[in-house]
Amino acid sequence: MIISVFGDAILPRGGEIWLGGLINLLAPLDLNERLIRTTVYRLVKDEWLTTQTQGRRTDYKLSASGWRRFEEASKQIYASNAPNWDNRWRLVMLVAELAPKNREQLRRALYWQGFGEINANCFVHPSADLAAAFDALRVDGMADVLPHLMPLVAINPRLGQSANDADIVHSAWDLAHLSEDYVAFVKTYKGILDAMQKAKKSSIDEESAFLTRTLLIHDYRRLLLRDPELPEVLLPAKWPGQTARMLTKELYRRLLAPSESHLNKHLILANGDAPEASDLVLRRFECDPLSTHIA
Questions:
Q1: Pairwise CA distance, residues 202 & 90, whole Å
Q2: Which residues face 52 on adjacent strands?
Q3: 99 by DSSP, 3-state: which?
Q4: Helix 241-266 crosses helix 175-198 at what angle (to 10 degrees)?
Q5: pLDDT tens digits for 38-62?
Q6: pTM confidence score
Q7: How many CA atoms lie within 13 A of 24 on its CB side?
């Protein structure tokens, strides 16, 4: 949740916040002070954040590597459409034996980047940036594993009766489970969008808008991390992922103004300054409103 807040709300305002301000922002979500302090300490240790002391107060700021990872994730989260596919598969091959614990750590890290598993030694993705994937593994503490991994880009030459791209999809991903989670997401947030469409714009509470926006992006981000964003030709009929994307975009746009007003008052630095948001937030989900297409 804290990672989601940094990427969505704090990054456009310089990527920095006073610890006390973060605690106050997240208090309505029942994240207590001790939990937040422990979490940001771990994020510093894992090189997502750095610290800057102002007297007895401490600001937490995105590190250079943390900033790169957030910007890369933002391209996926706030895109209006799924990326185009170049008909090439990105592979990560394990070319050495790993201890079972390290092998499972690698599998889980690549799973949260959307990679599917062909077998114990081969992971696949349709469009991942392999350099960014390796950088993420390094940040996750697996630098010693990288020399045992070979990144490859492959294309299917379609020879005779050979396996096809759909066979890779069926082997590597559990799309049925992901589809169920997308459907549950749409059901939850479609109800919120319907209520907002019926209500007057002026009746939207600023704090509630911020909290709803935070939960929306957090839940959507967790789905996208698992989603390989396959091309439409390889997806099951009536795939709910695009519906979820359009719903997230429309709801985010409706929540943006009141939630930003809340952040203007409560996202502060250790010295008391309240940094203004850049126009980055206005460029998210760019294109025409899509509420009329959400069924």
A1: 48
A2: 59
A3: coil
A4: 50
A5: 999 999 988 889 999 988 899 999 9
A6: 0.84
A7: 13
